[in-house]
Amino acid sequence: PSHQKIMQALGAEAYPMAWGEVYAGLQTGVIDGQMNPVPTVTFAKFNEVQGYLTLTNHLFSPYTMMLSKAFWDDLTADQQKIIRYAAQSCVVASRGVSRVIEASDRGLAGLKDKMEITALSAEDREKFKEATQPVVVKHVQESLGDEGVELLNLFKEEVEKANANRYME
Fold first, then answer.
1. With contact defined as beta carbons under 8 Å apart, do 160 and 168 qualify?
2. What is the pLDDT of residue 9?
3. What is the pLDDT of residue 62?
4. CA atoms within 13 A of residue 106's CA, in its CB half-sphere
5. pTM here?
6. Closest C-alpha to 103, from 116, 91, 112
7. Mean pLDDT for each 10-residue chunk of the chain (169 residues)?
8. What proportions of the chain, in percent to the nearest 5, are helix, strand and coil?
9. Do 10 and 136 meet the contact criterion of CB atoms below 8 Å apart?
10. First CA to last CA across the chain, in angstroms?
């Protein structure tokens, strides 16, 4: 529901569709777009039925590692250090894998001659953010209450720190 609400805030109408129907939906005009990362567009061969690709950088789906506080507190300082190091190594490795995919035929390089590709400017991304942030906060508030909004704000702060440290590049 949150992705649908985000698209609606941008003036689009989003319809959930079974994965196996997306290609045919694009091909027949039942839908006129889809929202997936570049490697998925390549893997699913959406470029065969979709002529345009817009790089929005509007969504980041991180893989998170979660541990209970009780479990964490029971670990020794050395064990905590090892887990922190492993998590940081995974960030670096996953960014590297993403770069390799993007530079290969599975990424943008493989789509450049098959689709018209447009990247949003920083200014346009900011407009997207302004239009969608209230929707996201409202959805989190309705779903998770004040504690959820606090966690969302904490997450946004951590993303800003990561961006400042160039983890996201």
1. no
2. 92
3. 67
4. 10
5. 0.70
6. 112
7. 88 93 97 90 94 84 83 97 93 82 81 92 91 93 95 89 67
8. 65, 5, 30
9. no
10. 29
Task: Please give the pLDDT value at position 103.
Answer: 78
Q: To the nearest 10°, the Cα dihedral for 119, 22, 12, 133? A: -70
Cα–Cα distance, 139 to 2 (Å, whole number): 7
CA-angle at 146, arms to 64 and 14, nearest 5°: 65
Residue 119 phi, psi dihedral angles, 5° rounding? -110, 135
pLDDT value at residue 166? 62
Strand partners, 119: 55
- Measure the CA–CA gap between 88 and 85, rounded to whole angstroms: 5
Whether 68 contacts 56, CB under 8 Å: no
What are 17's two structure tokens?
């569709």
Domain 2-117 in CATH 2.30.30.140 = no
The tokens of 107 are what?
């990424």
Looking at the chain, the domain(s) classified CATH 3.40.190.170 span 2-117
Q: Give the model's pLDDT for residue 146.
A: 96
Q: Decide: residue 83, CB within 10 A, 0-12 exposed, 13-18 middle, 19+ buried.
A: middle
Q: How many CA atoms lie within 13 A of 12 on its CB side?
A: 17
